[in-house]
Design a protein that fits this description.
Layout (H helix, E strand, L loop, with lengths): L4 E5 L4 H11 L6 E5 L5 E5 L7 E5 L6 H17 L4 E6 L18 H12 L3 E5 L14 E4 L2 H10 L7 E5 L5 H11 L2 E9 L5 E8 L6 E9 L3 H12 L4 E9 L5 H7 L4 E5 L13 E4 L2 H12 L10
Length: 315
């Protein structure tokens, strides 16, 4: 079934790549990755990829620039080794937040990174929960965009929270569409936290639209938790409005800056994230639950390799 499929992993998240390989019932390809004394990346493929359908698993997670450069080098090596098709499997796409010119004299870095990935040799891209859906259009090659929502929703449904006690909360106005989808899948009522951005780092949450919140179990969803400021601010507002218990769900646990401190001090019963990027041991909170996306990515890779529908995964 997989005679012509080769699965490679960079150093960003070898554990996830290993789980995908296990799902597919194949072995990861052997490669040598190291650094020269000046920091340059050294790479050698230890097996033949000529005429192969190559999938390279490499989230561009922190350190973003190192992991992005490693992905580009991996693709270039496969292209020069005559791979038939190269798919960049990017569970977490760094630089996704810079997707437009929202003021003068700023770059559209998402488009720049997409150009680099295309130029390095990607024939397809497999990504999950891009920060903005329009990033798919920045690539000049096909993009298969996966969603972690069904996996997260399945977990929260397993908690068997009575519908009358449940409220699904959008942490800001920009997440309303995502929250509505969760609300349709899980049930309960809908509420929105009114968030106002002070600057690029600070946000201020004040009011609740919809609800009610008091005495309810609140589920808050976001695509990523970076510094934690936005989601913790929303959690605090929900708590102030009388929520009995609060759960947080997110696709990407970036956890940078003050995130661990803020999350550990927030009144959150459980934080549920995927393993789209590795979480260092020092960042593993006592109330953190990680759900593997390896079966989702593995099934998508199987379908792409066999030219079957990927959207069928969400029908």
């Amino acid at each position: 079934m997989y005679d012509h499929l080769t699965l490679l992993s960079g150093r960003a998240h070898p554990q996830l790549a290993g789980e995908i390989a296990e799902y597919l019932g194949i072995r990861l390809a052997s490669i040598e990755l190291s650094n020269f004394p000046d920091g340059e990346i050294s790479l050698k493929l230890n097996q033949n990829v000529r005429g192969r359908d190559v999938f390279i698993v490499q989230p561009t997670s922190p350190p973003v620039n190192d992991n992005l450069m490693e992905l580009l080098i991996l693709m270039d090596a496969c292209r020069r080794a005559s791979a038939e098709r190269i798919t960049a499997v990017i569970p977490y796409f760094g630089y996704a937040r810079q997707d437009r010119k929202d003021s003068g004299r700023v770059p559209i870095t998402s488009k720049l990174v997409a150009n680099l990935i295309n130029e390095a040799g990607a024939d397809r891209v497999l990504a999950m929960d891009l920060h903005a859906a329009q990033i798919q259009g920045f690539f000049d090659t096909p993009v298969d965009h996966l969603y972690a929502a069904p996996i997260l929703d399945r977990y929260f449904r397993s908690l068997n929270i009575p519908d009358k006690d449940l409220v699904v909360v959008s942490p800001d106005e920009g997440s309303i569409k995502r929250t509505l989808q969760h609300n349709n899948n899980i049930g309960g009522t809908l509420a929105i936290v009114d968030k106002r951005r002070k600057n690029a780092i600070e946000t201020q949450q004040a009011n609740i639209i919809g609800g009610p919140i008091e005495g309810k179990v609140a589920l808050l969803f976001d695509d990523m938790i970076s510094t934690g400021g936005s989601i913790v601010g929303a959690v605090n507002v929900v708590k102030e409005h009388g929520a009995k218990e609060i759960y947080v769900g997110a696709s990407h646990a970036v956890f940078c800056g003050p995130a661990i401190k803020l999350l550990s001090e927030a009144p959150i019963k459980e934080i549920v994230v995927t393993n789209s990027l590795p979480i260092p041991d020092q960042d593993k909170l006592s109330n953190l639950r990680t759900i593997s996306i390896a079966p989702l990515l593995g099934e998508a890779i199987r379908r792409i390799h066999r030219n079957e529908s990927v959207s069928h995964l969400f029908d």
